[in-house]
Amino acid sequence: MTRLATPRRNGTSWLRTLPKAELHLHLEGTVSPETLVELSQRRDEDRLTLAEARALYRYTDFTGFLMAFKAVSARLRTPADYELITYRMLERLAAQGVVHAEVMVSVGVVYYWRRIEFEPLFAGMEAARVRAERQFGITLYWIFDAVRHFGPEEAARVFRKAAELRRESPSIVGIGIGGDERRTGAEPFRELYQEAQNAGLRLTAHAGETVGPEGIWAALNIGAERIGHALSAQLDPDLMQVLAERQIPLEICMTSNVRTGCCPKIEDHPVRRYFDAGLMVTLNSDDPAMFLSDLQDEYRLAYESFGFTEEHLRELAANSIEASFLPAARKVALLHQIEQVK
Fold first, then answer.
1. CATH at 77
2. Of 303, 283, 308, which is closest to residue 294 (Cα–Cα)?
3. Residues paired with residue 105 on neighbouring β-strands, in sequence order
4. Is residue 5 in a domain?
5. Residue 11: inside a domain, yes or no?
6. Which DSSP symbol is given to 47?
7. 31, 289 in Cβ contact below 8 A?
8. What is the CA radius of gyration of the chain?
9. Which pLDDT score, from 0 to 100, does residue 8 have?
10. Do 302 and 308 contact (CB within 8 A), yes or no?
11. What is the number of other CB atoms lying within 10 angstroms of the CB of residue 207?
């Protein structure tokens, strides 16, 4: 598509003043190579160089991305580590005009692969959340993410831990399944999703990122309220109609889909097709440190590569608020703020 000149009001400053929510963001994917080096210098005898840290983020396909994500996660070990990366994430989000974020943390990786207790790490995350809310005015909800290809048994530990900790930490709002769809679909998690819903948790799922529309149908069938990626929905007209009629929020991650090879090139991305078809589109950055694109960049990309107007961007920002799990009163207040942006 033709790239357009930056519009009169649509420069960096205008995008920054536009209140918006980030709904598809992985905590571990916000860790920059520079922060990884800083963490290594705190304790490692064989300290990472910046070149070595940057090399961890290089990959050519979705499998390579998963390995990079795993390599970064392995270097997050203490409550102080998690406090640091949470605070820096929120600091960067606030600088982009993000007023609320719903952030996934890979509890499944902590439990299944690293076999360490999560509660001390979560205490560090919460300390940063409270400090950032006080300093920047940004709010944060946590979504506990299970790795689908670790199986239902490990997902049960993740979801039940979310329900347990939520009694004392209302910032825990929901659960989800990420990981490799090609290895495990959504259906094995049906009963666990019902259990999580009964415990008062909201339900999300990655779906249609690396498999066809059947992955999205399965996520809807187990009760997912929001769909992460939904890249393959475009291949099924019936699914497109259902998504439009039910206004199921889609957590669209354009740059992510290209960088992982799930979408061949940015021009092929269906984001504009979805928007024009009346689907509930939200823009998100997924793993900004690994994809070199933050939420503000995604809004700019929507304008420059897909012809979204200023009013369209305002609508996308409003969608992000409406699709969030915030209380109704806060949604109304934030939507009013969006309307006031000139």
1. 3.20.20.140
2. 283
3. 144
4. no
5. no
6. P
7. yes
8. 19
9. 41
10. yes
11. 31
- What integer pLDDT is reported at residue 238 of this predicted model? 98
Single out the catalytic residue among 209, 251, 298, 311. 209
Query: Is the C-alpha dihedral spanning 215, 166, 106, 296 positive or negative?
Result: positive
Question: How many structural domains compose the chain?
Answer: 1
Q: Does some domain include residue 226?
A: yes
In a domain? residue 8: no
What is Dmax (Cα atoms) for the chain?
Answer: 57
For residue 294, give Cα distances in angstroms to 74, 82, 313. Answer: 23, 20, 15
* Distance separating alpha carbons of residues 239 and 62, to the nearest angstrom: 24
Closest Cα partner for 321 from 336, 335, 340? 335
Q: Hey, what amino acid is at 76?
A: L
Domain span at 66: 17-340
Distance CA(167)–CA(163), nearest Å, equals: 7
Which DSSP helix (H) or strand (E) runs through 111? none
Name the β-bridge partners of 176.
145
Let me know: does 154 contact 147? Beta carbons within 8 Å: yes
So what's the pLDDT on residue 113? Answer: 63
Residue 225 among the catalytic residues:
no
Alpha helix stretches (DSSP H) within the chain: 12-17, 33-43, 50-56, 62-73, 79-95, 107-108, 119-136, 152-166, 190-198, 213-221, 237-246, 254-259, 271-276, 288-291, 295-306, 310-322, 328-340
How many other C-beta atoms lie within 10 A of the C-beta of residue 304?
17
pLDDT tens digits, 8-32: 454 668 899 999 999 999 999 999 9
In a 10 Å sphere around its CB, with 0-12 CB exposed, 13-18 middle and 19+ buried, how is residue 58 labelled?
exposed
Flag residues of the chain having pLDDT under 50: 1-8, 10
**Secondary structure, 3-state, 163-218:** HHHHCCCCCEEEEEEECCCCCCCCHHHHHHHHHHHHCCCEEEEEECCCCCHHHHHH
Q: Would you give the end-to-end CA distance of the chain in angstroms?
A: 27
